[in-house]
Amino acid sequence: MSSLLIKNVFHNGETTDVFIKNKIFCRIEPGLDPSLADQVIDGTDKAIIPPFYNGHTHSPMTLLRGYADDIPLFEWLNDYIWPMEKVMTAEDIYNGSRLALYEMIRSGTIFFNDMYWQQDQTIRAVEEMGLKAAIGVTFMDGLGKKYIEANFDYLDAHLRPETLPEGITLTVAPHAIYTVSEALLRRCAAYAAEHNLVFHIHLSETKQEVEDCVKAHGMTPVRWLEQIGALEPQVVAAHVIHVDEEELAILASRDVTLVHNPVSNMKLCSGVFHFQKAQEAGCRYILGTDGCSSNNNLDMREEMKVAALVAKSRYKDLELLPASTVFKMATKWGAECFGLNSGKIAVGKAADALLLDLNNERMIPCYNLISNCVYSADNSVIDTVICNGRLLMENHKVPGGAEIVALAKESSIKMLERLKKG
Amino acid sequence: MSSLLIKNVFHNGETTDVFIKNKIFCRIEPGLDPSLADQVIDGTDKAIIPPFYNGHTHSPMTLLRGYADDIPLFEWLNDYIWPMEKVMTAEDIYNGSRLALYEMIRSGTIFFNDMYWQQDQTIRAVEEMGLKAAIGVTFMDGLGKKYIEANFDYLDAHLRPETLPEGITLTVAPHAIYTVSEALLRRCAAYAAEHNLVFHIHLSETKQEVEDCVKAHGMTPVRWLEQIGALEPQVVAAHVIHVDEEELAILASRDVTLVHNPVSNMKLCSGVFHFQKAQEAGCRYILGTDGCSSNNNLDMREEMKVAALVAKSRYKDLELLPASTVFKMATKWGAECFGLNSGKIAVGKAADALLLDLNNERMIPCYNLISNCVYSADNSVIDTVICNGRLLMENHKVPGGAEIVALAKESSIKMLERLKKG
User: What ipTM does the predicted assembly reach?
Assistant: First the structure.
């Protein structure tokens, strides 16, 4: 394994050197000898910060980006998204995942929590491109018994870490309470709890979901999930908009991680996340982009800014969700949620990092680095992306990018042709 | 004057050639002879679209970017922004304006409607860097009588177009009703009406402004401005958040242009623009970023996305403010508001344009170009920026960028030193 030394880089208000070996930050101190390392990077006028950890997305859906915007939800799903998903092949899912990962690297994200079908294709892309991911094995009753049993077989076959590429874990991912039966939810929860896997679900995203749940079970989704034992495993719940204070207290007591997806929630008019109440209840919360059919990108930097704006605006409190907090949601807390020893530039942590160009116009003046990252930056400030000590992007260049883009373009054209043929 | 031919570029769903001469789009048709032009650009896999027209900003305030975020409004102004503004020299304003213009070019903006002090410095920057602008001559009573008379003298001296650099017009810019007396507002309005200049003002931005106006004059700001004759000239009003339906009807009948600044409004908790009601009332509306102390950037692309998200989310209507409309707010309608014969790629229009890289990952797939621009893009999709037929950025490069950044950095460091010295 090669070692990497970053000389004279700006870190926590000072200029220092950062030495990476065996995928770990080994030493962070000034004046380190360049001969220590196989590769030396000049960090002059650059800052080192943690990269982003995307708490909830559907990576292959990059191929549905912009396919059907600004139209009502039911029409959007029925007439556009679902028919298009039916003509997606395994190759499309692979190409769409690679496009997603390329976009993630270019915008500073090195980890994502995914939920989609044919997870093998996404895993292949992650392994090839050197990121980290929690990959959902996704359950929906509508996919049929055979598919469900195949999913559990897949999980059984990959319980030992050595059966998966480095940096990849699986999650048990029942899609939502309105697409997964009580029996299957119970089975998923028991499986996740038994095998210590994350249970990843969409939760209380729309008013409709809550109303239907109350009608069917006499209680709201969070209460119902608790009753059927589905909050027993480590739960990562996406959206969590339509909840009351008692439900937030339940989620806090069960140590559920809420994934805030402000762009998707606004674009689809799902509602507004109760940031202040979630904070008061002592909930864990992180940040996610959702998929490209409802965002339409995977840009965690943009998501941080929108999250901060929405929280302030909703509660008329401009001190709420400051840059420092939303930055933690997108970095440290995201990494922690998935058991990663990273999300912070510190000795002993996994060597995940971004180098930011301090001479980029969006970083001038630099009164507050994190404030600039959250409120001012665009992606051109990101010069270098490091994951597990490996350079995924250096000087704005990601190897193989043109080919990834060309294949994804080809997939999207073929999908449209298949759709038109019917 | 040189001529420019863009070969094989994607325009309105087709591949064509675009020929620019004498700063105007002369011919838009396929198969044009390359020998026609002094310079030929290969437009293969690129799309040509109008650039952005920023409806309201304070360009020199880039030097206050990130200086004081996430703190209460009164403290923000009193303890941070105002003291810092006091130590800004003419050179700082020039350097700050140049940083702003560099940022604008890099994010596809070629025109801005500005309001700040020492407008000569900003004008100098605009002339040197080749953009267009409406530059406010800014009035506030607090600046003193001498300053006010000097402003009117300045306006008098620049009434004929030949007294200003090409592409620059002046506006009469009383800051707001709470910083400008009735007498001065009346005088500014009469002056603007007489000389056919735009009257640029902050209007009904905060609840406090409205309450104070009602207390002082027995009516809300819009009604009061109408009563004192301040809606007689061509008015461009920034923010316009705290207004009722009757006020929107007054603004529509007076053909006032409302500038929506969603990011600033959210970040400062000013309130939410009544997009739907403004639309129903038949108002004109365009888009602006506000200044870097409340945004913290000048990114019209980001502003478009946030504007669309906020409108949908506020009114729970995901068809509201679609990509096509918000794109017009940022381009065509912005140009029209300031009497520019541009904002559209069409023969006879001024040759303002962006070339977008259709092989950029954010533009893949390309089911809908404008939807990708609004909801998916980051600035790396912008390959080339053209203003009045002149290439301001080509292949992502703006000549002189490094020097502009270095001087702005130096200014910001010196300002802080001066502030500390007291």
Answer: 0.97
CA distance A266 to chain B (A): 5
- Residue B243 in contact with residue B214, Cβ under 8 Å? no
Domains detected in chain B: 4-50+351-395 (2.30.40.10), 52-337 (3.20.20.140)
Q: Walk along chain B (422 residues) in steps of 10 and give the mean pLDDT of each run.
A: 93 97 98 96 98 98 92 84 93 98 98 97 98 98 95 98 96 97 98 98 96 98 98 98 98 98 96 96 98 96 98 94 98 98 98 98 96 98 98 97 98 94 84
Nearest-Cα distance to chain A for B370, in Å, is 9
Question: How far is residue B330 from each of residues A100, B73, B237, measured CA to CA in Å?
Answer: 28, 28, 16
Please give the backbone phi and psi of residue B72, each rounded to the nearest 5 degrees, phi first. -60, 150
- B chain contacts of residue A266, beta-carbon cutoff 8 Å: 309-310, 312-313
Residue in A with minimal Cα distance to B107: A378
Q: What is the C-alpha to C-alpha distance for residues A231 and A251, in angstroms, rounded to an integer?
A: 8
What is the value of pTM for the model shown?
0.98
Q: Looking at beta carbons, which residues of chain B come within 8 Å of A360?
A: 405
Which H or E run contains B332?
helix B332-337
Q: Which residue has the tokens 């995914």?
A: A114
Nearest-CB residue to A378 (from B62, B70, B379): B379
pLDDT tens digits, residue range B174-223?
A: 999 999 999 999 999 999 999 999 999 999 999 999 999 999 999 999 99
| Single-letter code of the amino acid located at A385 | V
